[in-house]
Amino acid sequence: MLSEIHLLTDQASLWPVSGHQFVSLLRLLLVQSHLESGSATITTVTTTNTIAIALSAELGFVFGPVTGGGLDLAARLAGLLGALLIQLVTALVIALEMAWDTWWALVLGFTITGAIQEFVDEDQLTDYLGDDGWREIGYGTVFGTASSSCSFSAVAMTRSLFTKGASAASTLGAFQFASTDLVLELALVVLTLLGWQFAAAEITGGLIAVVVLGIVYRRFVPSSWIERARAHARALDETECATCGMAAPPTDEETITRTFDGERRYFCCGGCLNAYDPADDREAVTAGPELLSGDRWQSAIANTMSEWDMLWRDILFGFLLAGLLAAFVPDTWWTALFGVGPEGSLTRLFSNVVLGAIVGVLTFLCSVGNIPFAVVLWQNGVSFGGVLAFIFADLLILPLVRTYHRYYGLRMAGVMFAAFFAAAVIAGFLVELVFSGVGLVPSPGTSGGTVPGAYTSLFNVVTLPLFAVQVYVALEPDQRVRLGNRIAPYVAGVLYHAYDLVRRVAYALESRGLK
Q1: Contact 55/28 with Cβ under 8 angstroms?
Q2: Contact 147, 157 (CB under 8 A)
């Protein structure tokens, strides 16, 4: 039973205190914003000298009948606007807190990914992925974890490997899934926002999903379908980005065109242009002087910035969407959506993983960008397995499904959708059963990463200059000169004022007899 708090506000007393009626309404809204969602209802009673306001913590805010003419209507509208602004500020604060918690993980993850892409020769991957055996599927999983975490870039790389003769099980299944759901930066973000149990479950569930995909492509997809899809991909006549392989139509205003050694190259974004190396036929290295080569590490940094350029919109949108959902959507809505079946039953578990995958399809978020949304789902009662299924469904968003259709044809696009959906649901379901059995599922709704706040602040302070250096190195020489000319006066001013402050302090200490 919800408790009711009756707030009676005398209309005559408002004027001497604030001078305006809506100020008091906003004060009431501030009180309401601190109530737990769904735990209380604020109502007022209308009398001759009293304004009636009805605020429901369940529905957000609903204004009841207010009498008194146009001023009362203006007060109601002002109160509504105030409540909306309060919720928007709350959403922004939640988004900023998530961004702060994950900043160091993103910088570190993208830095390592860029280095791996530079020092691992992708052209040799096809030699390891030619068959559909479990060894090749294992290779595909390992190579996928070392590739780009951008879903669209991973899909383009998968197509390149598949057209060169790699098997469907090792590329369309293992490589593509691992390149988005088993990459380092994703695990770090899960660790910081959801905790180590979710990070362990994400890795365990990812491996289960790879096994499911391997079974699907090896046992249930006819070889004739696979070869027809390969022929369709090879016959696809479109201009591709010279770096990541994504579509880069020359007529698209976002496509960048450059000429190298007399040949024209097209790039889908500025990050790919900076990451492109005309001498990209250099062999992979694991030891020796090449690992210390400045040129190689500059290319690695360019790869890192390419990752940022491809993913920052998804990440930013993910944080903002998570904040808005946490601030505006009441708990009862989530309960109504995911509360199918008795609590703790297999019906509830299975319905949650299926609905989690469906929500993942509809969010249009991919890879790292959907983790903040996963936090909101977990905090609002979605099951452990349901959250994992949501995370694993990032390869099912509609823009990617359209890409599957364009690359491989309608039939194989349907096979890929069904395979990824089944893998997400089965992995989420089995991981929750196993983790529940060994007591590794955290308390429902609790969240918060494993990394303490002090360490988070320290890591962020360390990675911020690292990111600044990466941005500077990735710039063109003329851009560096312009940037240096712009910031030089400000840096000189800071240094001068710092010197002047030290001089004044030293003089003050000396004048008091201190040296």
Answers
A1: yes
A2: yes
Secondary structure element (H or E) that encloses residue 5, with its range: strand 3-6
Can you read off the two tokens belonging to residue 493? 């001013």
d(CA 215, CA 442) in angstroms, rounded, equals: 31
Q: Are the CB atoms for 168 and 226 separated by under 8 Å? A: yes
- Tell me how far apart the alpha carbons of residues 391 and 10 are, in angstroms, rounded to a whole number: 51
Rounded to whole angstroms, the Cα distance separating 102 from 368 reads 10
Instruction: Yes or no: say if 371 and 189 are a contact pair by the CB < 8 Å rule.
Output: yes
**pLDDT 10s digits, 224-270:** 999 999 998 887 755 667 666 666 676 677 778 777 766 677 777 76
Which of these ranges, 285-294, 342-351, 437-446, 451-460, has the smallest mean pLDDT? 285-294
> Which residues, 6+ apart, have CB-to-CB distance to 270 below 8 Å?
256, 309
In terms of Cα–Cα distance, which of 3, 51, 58 is closest to 27?
51
Three-state secondary structure of 360-373: HHHCCCCHHHHHHH
- Alpha helical stretches, state H, 120-167: 125-128, 134-145, 151-163
How close are the terminal C-alpha atoms of the chain, in Å? 70
d(CA 95, CA 58): 22
**Closest of 114, 140, 112, 141 to residue 125, by C-alpha:** 140
CA distance 400 to 406: 10
Interatomic CA distance for residues 191 and 196, integer angstroms:
5
* Alpha-carbon span 175 to 154, nearest angstrom: 8
Beta bridge partners of 56: 41
Among 118, 168, 454, residue whose Cα is nearest residue 297: 118
Q: How is residue 461 written in tokens?
A: 């302070």
Residue 353, token pair as written in the block: 């993983």
Return the exposure string of 164-181: e unless at least 16 CB atoms fall within 10 Å of the residue's CB, then b.
Answer: bebbbbbbbbbbbbbbbb
- 59 Cβ partners below 8 Å, 6+ apart? 330
Tell me the C-alpha distance between 419 and 163, whole Å: 20
The pair of three-digit structure tokens given for residue 194, joined into one six-digit string: 């959801």
Confidence check: pLDDT of 421 > 90: yes
Residue 312: helix, strand or coil by DSSP? helix
pTM (whole model) above 0.70: no
The first and second tokens of residue 325, run together, are: 């959902």
Residue type, 56: S
C-alpha closest to that of 271 among 302, 233, 240: 302
Comparing CA positions, the residue from 312, 323, 387 lying closest to residue 349 is 387
Which residue type does 275 have? A
* 321 vs 412, higher pLDDT: 412
CB count within 10 Å of CB 414 equals 14
Determine the longest span between alpha carbons in the chain, in angstroms. Answer: 92
Q: Which residue has the tokens 């994992």?
A: 388
CB 515 within 8 A of CB 509: yes
